Amino acid sequence: MRKILFLLCCLTVCLFAGPKAEWIIYPEDLSEGVNKERLLRTEFDVADKPIKQASVAYILDDSGYVYVNGKSVSQDAPRKSDFPGCYSFDVTGLLTAGRNALCAIAINGGGSGGSILRLSINYKDGSIQEVFSDTTWKTSRVKTE
Q1: Residue range 36-94, pLDDT digits in tens
Q2: Alpha carbon 88 to chain centroid distance?
């Protein structure tokens, strides 16, 4: 049953995150990362034009937080479960024109923390910008500004 639910969860994130998003996992021996925070981060530019709506969809394995420009997209405590869930939040008010940062803090009860994410920005002029998790993201064991 868990495998079926996990597969459904993965299918859901594919619908949210699209085929361009990749799982990113902190590169370490799995036993070293058990129940420890692993940080995954990227920077991206936002155009200097009005944003209609922006959202981030993600799965964290097994739990954790997602931040845009240092602000949590959800004030909830990390969710712990036998399988990760897919979440989506509006982040329109957290973005600014110019350089922005997207960070995930993943905590995995069975190994190294990881995530799959998609940030979608819909501008008022009809254009769309997307940021996907991929292997270019920086990973760390230590929180930084």
Answers
A1: 888 999 999 999 999 999 999 888 887 888 999 999 998 665 555 455 667 889 999 99
A2: 10
pTM here? 0.81
DSSP characters over the chain: -HHHHHHHHHHHHHHHH-TT---EE--S-GGGGBT-EEEEEEEEEE-SS-EEEEEEEEEEESEEEEEETTEES--SPPP--SS--EEEEE-GGG--SEEEEEEEEEEBTTSS-EEEEEEEEEETTS-EEEEE--TTSEEESS---
